[in-house]
Design goal:
Layout lengths: L2 H10 L5 H11 L3 E4 L2 E3 L1 H5 L4 H4 L3 E7 L6 E9 L2 E5 L3
Antiparallel strand pairs: 1-2, 1-3, 3-4, 4-5
């Protein structure tokens, strides 16, 4: 996972949902993304299909990619497009 690309994507798109931007960037990097145990695609966030996730301060992510080890981590939203990567709980 290229974290720098996630931070760049957030900085370059201040109009859309931070969660949707993160998902979109991870998809571009070839990952399947699970948020709090649910498989999600970025369009679902952009279409407001999971408003409950948008209001949470912290989310757990698991990402999978063929040929790579599964990774789990948390993201804490500290401002609109400001995040901190944390350990998954």
């Amino acid at each position: 996972m290229n974290i720098t690309k996630i931070f760049d994507a957030l900085q370059n798109d201040e109009m859309n949902s931070a969660l949707g931007i993160i998902l979109n960037e991870l998809e571009k990097q070839g990952y399947r993304v699970f948020v709090n145990g649910v498989y999600l695609k970025s369009y679902e966030i952009f279409e407001n299909k999971h408003p409950d996730l948008e209001s949470r301060e912290r989310l757990n992510f698991t990402i999978e990619k063929t040929g790579f080890e599964t990774q789990s981590f948390g993201i804490k939203f500290i401002e609109y497009h400001k995040i901190i990567f944390t350990e998954s709980i």
